[in-house]
Design a protein that fits this description.
The protein folds into two domains: about 150 residues, Ribosomal Protein L4, Chain: A, CATH 3.40.1370; about 40 residues, no CATH class. A six-stranded mixed β-sheet has the order 2-1-3-6-4-5. The chain is α/β, with parallel strands linked by helices. Helices cover about 35% and strands about 15% of the residues. It has seven helices and six strands, in the order E-E-H-H-H-E-H-E-H-E-H-E-H. Helix 2 crosses helix 3.
């Protein structure tokens, strides 16, 4: 697949051939869904916690004698049916992490990139850089290159000026090419891809994996 290369004014400056093994791979919706669910699950902190009857304070003494009171026998005032007692079947701290083999994760990225390419939602630029951080410059550049309603700008390396320029835009985000992930790919309409970032993607997604 061949795409135009634009500069930040929107002018055509060349053409580039996108690797077929990355941008024309079979679109596996099941694989993308599994990768998305995994990423969302791994982002959960799992810090929810409630106390059972063995964790609440007090209740060490039997509230009244076993027999002769006319009440049901009770061993502790911290049983779940007592006020201030422990909780039953409530959340406890645990990990929500899910496992997924690296080949499958990369296959999901290829599927998402191929879906973007097939829908014309990839814009290739010669570079995405600014002399100084300025939100207005980033907004004008994204508009000029036709980035659509929302844009994910993939950077080949750390670029503080570009990152700060985009940070204040509610409909755009910058991301290092090595950290490309399925949630951000599916969450933004247009993928803005500088040529140097394309080389980074080729370095770890370019090897076609036999499934």
């Amino acid at each position: 697949m061949e795409l135009e290369v634009k500069d930040l004014t929107g002018a055509k400056v060349g053409m580039v051939e996108l690797p077929a093994e990355i941008f024309e791979a079979p679109i596996r919706k099941d694989l993308m869904h599994q990768a998305l669910v995994r990423q969302q699950a791994n982002a959960r902190l799992g810090t929810h916690e409630t106390k059972g009857r063995g964790e609440v304070s007090g209740g060490g003494k039997k509230p009244f004698k076993q027999k002769g009171t006319g009440h049901a026998r009770q061993g502790s005032t911290r049983a779940p049916h007592w006020k201030g007692g422990g909780k039953v079947h409530t959340p406890h701290m645990h990990s929500h992490a899910l496992e997924m083999p690296r080949q499958m994760r990369r296959g999901a990225l290829r599927s998402a990139l191929s879906a973007k390419a097939s829908e014309g939602q990839i814009v290739v630029v010669d570079k995405f850089a600014f002399d100084a951080p300025k939100t207005k410059s980033a907004a004008q550049a994204l508009s000029a290159i036709g980035a659509g309603r929302s844009a994910l700008v993939v950077l080949p390396e750390k670029n503080e000026a570009a990152q700060k320029s985009v940070n204040n835009l509610s409909n755009a985000k910058t991301l290092h090419a090595k950290y490309l992930n399925i949630r951000d790919l599916l969450g933004y309409e247009t993928l803005v891809l500088p040529l140097a970032a394309l080389d980074v993607l080729k370095s770890y997604l370019g090897q076609e994996v036999a499934e």
